[in-house]
Design a protein that fits this description.
The protein is α/β, with parallel strands linked by helices. It is built from 10 helices and 5 strands.
Length: 261
């Protein structure tokens, strides 16, 4: 009899665990479906935010360590030759601000631009961009170049409509506070297939960029396509998402040319 009871207890415990796991899985699936349909607000997304944030943080910590190591390398003839073009870019962007995530933050980390020309944060998405908007308003630049979307691919579970809505809210906040500032929108960079294979949501880059082009057309904002710059040799970091340092001079030149600075 004791053995029978023990067996029953084990079976019941297994069933309870199975039900809990199944329930959690259904909850995640439900949130994904609701968000794709546009039927949930940001509070629903926040329940899944931690899950995506862990992966983003681990990747970006590795990138940050790599940048720090590069910055500590001793000067060579090659790095000395780069000093003049870098100084020129810092001057050209002295009255401008580039806003974005970890890809943008590298402009400051690699010392391509001064900190007063970069308002960026690792792992940032448009649902949490308010502090960065306030910082940009404080700087009161002539030009703002916005570059968001990489983290929104995961955070918004592949919902380009919600992405466009949040982006437009951010743009309008800046326009209301800085009516004389010209705003430019950078497209999301292409992501390598190996990264998409790990996280299929990264495959929505084209749909998100199409939403950005639609927004820019509707609001009369210049759209900057940098995808061609990612065709340079050995341009991607190991994660297949972030660009290596030699991408950034080309990006700055592309933005500067678009703005005529």
């Amino acid at each position: 009899m004791k053995q029978v009871l023990a067996n029953i207890t084990r079976i019941m415990s297994t069933l309870v665990v199975f039900v809990c796991v199944a329930w959690f899985g259904l909850m995640i699936l439900s949130y994904q479906q609701e968000l794709r349909a546009g039927n949930t607000d940001m509070a629903g997304i926040h329940k899944l935010d931690e899950l995506a944030a862990r992966d983003v943080a681990s990747v970006e910590n590795a990138i940050q360590n790599s940048r720090a190591a590069s910055a500590q390398q001793p000067e060579t003839a090659e790095t000395q030759a780069e000093a003049a073009p870098r100084a020129d870019m810092k001057t050209r962007f002295a009255n401008s601000v580039v806003m974005g995530d970890s890809i943008t933050k590298a402009l400051e980390d690699y010392e391509f631009l001064d900190s007063t020309s970069v308002v960026a944060k690792n792992g940032i998405n448009l649902a949490h961009v308010q502090p960065e908007l306030e910082r940009a308003v404080e700087l009161n630049p002539k030009n703002i170049f916005m570059s968001y979307g990489m983290n929104d691919l995961e955070y918004l579970w592949g919902n380009p409509q919600k992405f466009e809505e949040l982006y437009e809210n951010a743009v309008r906040t800046l326009q209301e506070s800085l009516p004389d500032t010209k705003i430019y929108i950078n497209g999301i960079l292409p992501i390598q297939q190996k990264a998409i294979d790990k996280k299929p949501l990264y495959g929505n880059v084209d749909a998100y960029n199409e939403a950005l082009v639609e927004m820019c057309t509707r609001l009369g904002l210049p759209f900057i396509d940098n995808s061609g710059l990612m065709q340079q040799e050995d341009i991607y970091q190991e994660d297949g998402i972030h660009p290596k340092p030699h991408y950034y001079p080309s990006w700055l030149e592309n933005m500067a040319s678009k703005a005529g600075i």
